[in-house]
Amino acid sequence: MESSEKVWQDRYNHPAPWDQSFPPMSMVDMVVNSATAKPDAVMIDFLGRKTSYGDMLHIIRRVAKGLQDMGVRKGDRVGLYLPNVPHYVAAYYGAMMAGATVVNFSPLYTAAELEHQVEDSGTKILFTLSAKALLPTALEVLDNSSLERLILGCVAEALPPAKSVLFRIFKRSETAPLPHDARISNYADLLRHGDDPAPVTIDPVDDVALLQYTGGTTGRPKGAMLTHQNLTANARQVRLIDPHPEAADRIIAVLPFFHVFANTCVLNRTVLSGGEMVMLPRFEAVQVLAAIQRTKPSSMPGVPTMYQALLDHPATPNIDFSSLRLCISGGAPLPLELKQRFEAATGAKLCEGYGLTESSPVVCSNPYEGLNKPGTVGQPIPGTHVKLVDREDPTRPPPPGEPGELVFAGPQIMKGYWQRPDADKEVFIDGWLRTGDVGLIDEDGYVKIVDRLKDMIAVGGFKVFPSQVEEVLYHHPAVKEALVIGIPDAYRGECPKAFVTLQEGAEIDGEGLKAWLNPQLGKHEKVCALEVRLNLPKTLVGKLSRKELVAEERAKAESNQGQTGTAA
Predict the structure, then answer these.
(1) Residues with Cβ < 8 Å from 485, sequence gap 6 or more?
(2) Distance from C-alpha of 165 to C-alpha of 159, rounded to nearest angstrom
């Protein structure tokens, strides 16, 4: 550990010193400070409609006041079930200004998953849109959980006037009818309560700003308690690794804000810097390319599948990428070939980083300039400590020269899991956060991930938890045993594949089970294949074992690659 820390002090390749501290700062102070310093600067460009920092602060204050008038008090949980729209930014900072804790709800969740999260978090108010992709599910959750109120916005109200009219005329099919229900409030009405919310005293170190749900190796997702200081510290840490903080800061904000990666690297970092977010509600390659051409952005954080989709689009060779200097890849391993192809096509630097929901999330990144090591996740960002511990006994270091479990410490590490002290005992060791990932730290202080202790599957930057898919499979009367693993996928990094054995006398094949299973799963959970077998591998004590299946599928993928290469 000492030798690594000396490397980071002596041969640190990020532009700011590694060894430094971050004074406590609340999320409210962060956004207010930026808006006060740059009131006329553009904060959001949403499909051509621009909102300044001063104007957005005015809206944030109105959201805070409206929520307080609804009875929201310090510590209450307010949910956001939203894509990347201006409503998200206003509700996110507005809820925090009102003293509430924000809870992110993924639009990819099923109603049952959302209901569990509502109950677990104690969320009483949920922001969403009148979109067919969101509202029916939100109404189902409202009827089947302890959720008390929906606050309903409309995309049209965030668009430029001409586009707003056209949207209302031609996109009516994408809008769900609004039910007459006393439990539903209009977003526009919320903003009519005034802009003088009651001041709330916030302890940045102790008060939870965001509940970000993450799954584990088993069981239901857990809420990571990210404090105001966790989030503002990570935003400051990420800003410090930019060697040109004075340069134009215009970022393509298409990575979804409900994902912790975007929450820090797109939203909070940009607001901290007073930069501009070119906001897109969902990823569509043609829209992203058009936005790059129209707005000349300086950066675009994303996951590998996004960069692959942009490379695959036929319009890409005709796009001017000259303004784009930096793209940060996270959420899933970045293939070297993809990195090289994207950099060659755009002229932008594509750097891989690493983090976890529990670390707000960024802990490591390859430098934007200087030594960039493919296959590594770079050096720890400023103020972040990392070491290796033995995979079997985390209280001691691994044998010299051998990989170990990565553990981290720093100001961005979560307070703990929401109402889960049992889980806290498992994930913290002497104040260090256990990652479940096995890695190495090389002679230059670069971190390399070599294996995973966790079974989670990274699908296009989203985490899929095998136990949840297996749980659904076990509801089928024909299924005797089930295992789900991640298999290599050229586009998404990994995709889930299920293996089952059948009850005696059952007569159903893999395609039949797959057709039954996938409609019950979230978008990223859907299995790409389902295989029926006579037996599944087991450990010596009789537990179902994934590792043999993982090795088998990896060998199959390598064999297929070899055959493809030979044929070519």
Answers:
(1) 455, 457, 466, 496, 497, 499, 546, 549, 550, 553
(2) 9
Instruction: Spell 440-450 as b/e; 16+ CB within 10 A means b.
Output: bbeebbbbbbe
pLDDT tens-digit readout, 62-89? 999 999 999 999 999 999 999 999 999 9
Tell me the one-letter amino acid at 249.
Answer: D
CA 262/CA 302 separation, integer angstroms: 8
Tell me the DSSP string of 483-529. Answer: EEEEEEETTTEEEEEEEEEE-TT----HHHHHHHHGGGS-TTT--SE
486 pairs with which residues across the strands? 496
Exposure of 477 by Cβ count < 10 A (0-12 exposed, 13-18 middle, 19+ buried)?
exposed
Q: What are phi and psi of 386, to 5 degrees?
A: -140, 140
Q: Are strands 404-409 and 432-441 parallel, antiparallel or unpaired?
A: antiparallel
Please name the amino acid found at residue 147: L
> In angstroms, rounded to a whole number, what is the distance separating the alpha carbons of residues 40 and 60?
16
**Domain residue spans of the chain:** 27-40+52-201, 457-567
pTM, full prediction? 0.83
| CATH no. of 27-40+52-201 | 3.40.50.980
* Fold match, 27-40+52-201 / 457-567: no
How far, in Å, CA of 235 to CA of 272, rounded?
7
Q: How many other β-carbons are positioned within 10 Å of the β-carbon of residue 10?
A: 9
pLDDT digits (tens, 9 = 90+) for 247-298: 999 999 999 999 999 999 999 999 999 999 999 998 999 999 999 999 999 9
Q: Which fold has domain 457-567?
A: GMP Synthetase; Chain A, domain 3 (3.30.300)
- HSE value, Cβ hemisphere, 13 Å, CA-based, for 244: 10
CA-to-CA dists, residue 402 to 204, 391, 397, 409, angstroms: 39, 10, 10, 21
Per residue in 100-129, pLDDT (tens digit) is 999 999 888 889 989 999 999 999 999 999
**What number of H helices and E strands is found in the chain?**
18, 26
Question: By the 8 A CB rule, do 286 and 316 touch?
Answer: no
Cα separation, 182 vs 172, in Å, equals: 24
